[in-house]
Each structure stands twice: as structure tokens, then as C-alpha cells.
Amino acid sequence: MEAERDAILAALTPVVDGIAATFGPVCEVVLHDYRRPERSVVALSGAVTGRTVGGAMSQIGMRMVARGDEAADELNYVTRTDTGKLVKSSTMLLRDSSGAVFGALCVNVDVGAASEVHALLGALAGIGAAPAEPPVTTFGDDIDSVVDVMLDAHRHQSWALLDRAGRLDLFRSLDERGVFAVRRAIEQVAGRLGISRASAYSYLSQSRKESRSRPSEGMREQSGSLADAREQANNGGHT
Fold this sequence. Notes:
There is one protein chain. By secondary structure, the chain is of the alpha+beta class. Helix content is about 45%, strand content about 20%. Helix 5 crosses helix 7, helix 6 packs across helix 7 and helix 7 packs antiparallel against helix 8. The termini are far apart.
């Protein structure tokens, strides 16, 4: 199966250059191998997001990995890079003969100039409402920086001020976005939250169990008490 996946990636590598050449300098095409999220970019042509071969997957790719084989193609969505560039993208998943997702072919088009022209024409004509602000997506070669941005987006409150439900929601949200598919992410999350690695593993495990079974409130409270006691012990009595 690994040989089959390698063959699919090899066959698509020249396609990357072909698509980018067709659409010109506003287009970037990226071929991802999801089997290695920290260096998923195996082929790239164009320079829209500033990535390089050997770079990491983005938040979008991490979300795809979290969904596993249930993931679906995402076409013609608009995001904004952290430098303010407006990008229209399509992410087309790669599957092997068993249907398992293992990578993606992504097309990113810089539509900033076209958007400005559209807005100008609309203003001159006196029509059209202002478009909704697209979400910011982090594209980077360093997977740690992508995880950091995702953590920052969920740090609305101090960890110490979150109750057990809030802490589990935080871990569940990060898990759904594919953060924990990245090697060493649990240590990175624990360090940013100021908790022990054992506590981070405990909260992740509990959030996954609750997502699967949704136990009764009494069982959740009892499990939470044990987790909090374990965390205090691991951190010398501090959360």
C-alpha cells in the first residue's frame, strides 16, 4: 500500500508544475503527503503562501487529517494569509485503492487584485454589499508555528480559570482540528498551557471518551475530580 501511495504522488508531481504554469504567477500548487505532517509538502510550484518543499501542512491540512477517511474535498474557499493576502483555494484529497486518505493536491490563487477591482466596480455602480471577512489561515514551513497559532486562537481564557468542561472543550477542539496528529504536539500544548504532559494526555483521553460515549453528568464530575487531583499532583499542587 505504501508503494501505491508513493506511485500516486510521483505521478502527480509533474501535474503540479503544469497547473501552476497554466494559471501563471498568481497561482500556487502544492502536493501534500499527509503521512508526514511536519514535512508534508513533497512538490510545489508558485509562490502564493511562501512555503517550500519539505514544509509543514497548514491548519486546513491538519483539519483534513483529523477527519481521516471521512474527510471530503474542499473547493473554492477563500482565506486570508497572516500577511493579509487574499487567497482562493481548493483542496483535493488523495486516496489509495482502499479509499484511505493519505495526501492532497492543493491549488491556491492570489485573488487580491481581482477582489479590489470587483470592489471598485461595485462602488462605482453603487451596488453590492461588502463581502464577509475571510478567516485567516496560517501557512508555514514550521509545524510548531502552525500549532501555536491554533492554540492562540483558543486561548480566550487562562487555563487556571477554565472549569473542567472548558478544559475538555479546549482539548476536544484542538483534537478536531488535527493538532494532536502532529508529533510532539502534546508536549507543545502542555508547555503552552503550563501543565504537565501527563495531565495533557489525561485531558485528551477524557475528551475523546466523552465524544464517543457522552456519559452521565455524575460520571463526568467524578472523572473530572480524578483528573484535577492527578494534575495537581503532577504540578506540585498547582494548575
